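Need tokens for this chain, all 281 residues.
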Amino acid sequence: MALEKNLLASKSLLYIVSDGPKNADAVEPVNAVRSTIREPWAFKHITIIERKHNLGLAENVIDGVSKVVAKHGRVIVLEDDLETSRWALTYFNDALERYEHNEQVMEVSGYMYPIQHPKRLPKSFFFRVANSWGWATWQSAWEKFNPDIHELTKDFKRKDKKRFSIDGTENFWKQVKQYKAGKINSWAIRWYLSVFNNDGLVLYPRYSMVQNLGTDGSGTHSDLDDAYRVELAQARVKYFPVEIEENQKAYNAIKHFFATRKGPFIERLVRYVIKKWRKKR
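Here are the structure tokens for all 281 residues:
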């Protein structure tokens, strides 16, 4: 367990929220997971919440985050398909402490996109997009989370959609439309909308503290996509920006990644065929 190898693991309170099985076929895998999470992991204290019924990813995350942040005032959120750098908990806690009283900083992202020339960026910086692949927040920020996507988007204009989708380079607005059509049930797109509507900013590390293993096609809402694979951070983040504003160099670098991540047509075709094949298995 990568999280257990973090330098602050033995000082951390760990909450594990296990959703109930979707159907009869899921009972055995869920029981196997619950057997694993009961092992004596090396944390200060472990609280296990086992759902009797299946809430689904979105409601499970929303309820779990709401309960923990109400009790402790802050929360670090990691889903089960994430691998962490040994410095991840240090980074999250340092950032949570530093920006606790700044309302514009609404999230700390553990994941960072595999951009070109990362050394050109500061060791941490602000960007507008709320990331769901390992993140942290405070109660004051989470209180601004609005689960009603229609209310969140009722005043959106074309320019807002452009800003929200990073000049149209990423499919964030497509996710909004998919949610409204009932094709996905994403808490993350509603959280990003909540941050965006409050002019919030998200702290990112130059080098990712989190690797999403769910992009192999096994994760909920995840397709087969190696473009998001990263090398985990090997050092502590010691620099945190004083100026609370979006970093333009980081914006341009991430925008370029969004615009080019799918690669040439033949690569996209191969990924599409593999995705369809896996769904038929």
